[in-house]
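Deliverable D4.2, example record:
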Amino acid sequence: MPRTLWRAASAQLQGRRDAQADAFAIADDEATGRIAVAVADGIGDTADAADAAELVAKEAVGAALNSTPETGCIRAREQLAASGIAADASIVTALFDPAHSRVRFTWAGLCRAYLLTTGGELRRATYDHSLGERIRRHTTQRGPLPMYDRKVTRTVAHHEFVTTSLPAHTATGVLLCTDGVSQSVAEQIIIAALLCDDPDEGAALLARDVGINGPDNATAIVLRRTH
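Output generated by the structure prediction step:
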């Protein structure tokens, strides 16, 4: 029987928000060894935002596990539209498949995915769908743009998802996270978390660095290659 090559663990903090509007989901298939994971960030500090994030994360991994991350995100969009929930979300979904040579990612919004290579290099698998990132990509502007970096240009409900993949055999660790993690944690801490042999320790390290009183919800899924 196939066995997954990856172990997954998660950590989540509410921070100084009224609602925990982040969500995550992890699903696996023992028969195939596949693992699907998703992190979602509801847009807004409301119960509706929390409901939207929980719904899309769950729907995305359920469909991704049996197909692709893109199919998962499309399913999440359909179910969010049918739910009547008056909120939207960012999402990143990944699929780890022992039969596939690449880790596949699909996303929209400000959730991110990072991959740590066997050589110790941290690679961003995603880029932010924000007005600030669009400005940096099309002008000579560099560095943070506080007025624009949180203006989301793609979401679960609006515009197309983006899909990419990275070689699985070169990866030792993968992080999926909301911007409450990526905006608060230095890359050196992310590397340290992905180097932990136990993904639970890696996820806990990220949570400690963000701190329980961080300004935003913070959610992370850490995956560690087992062999």
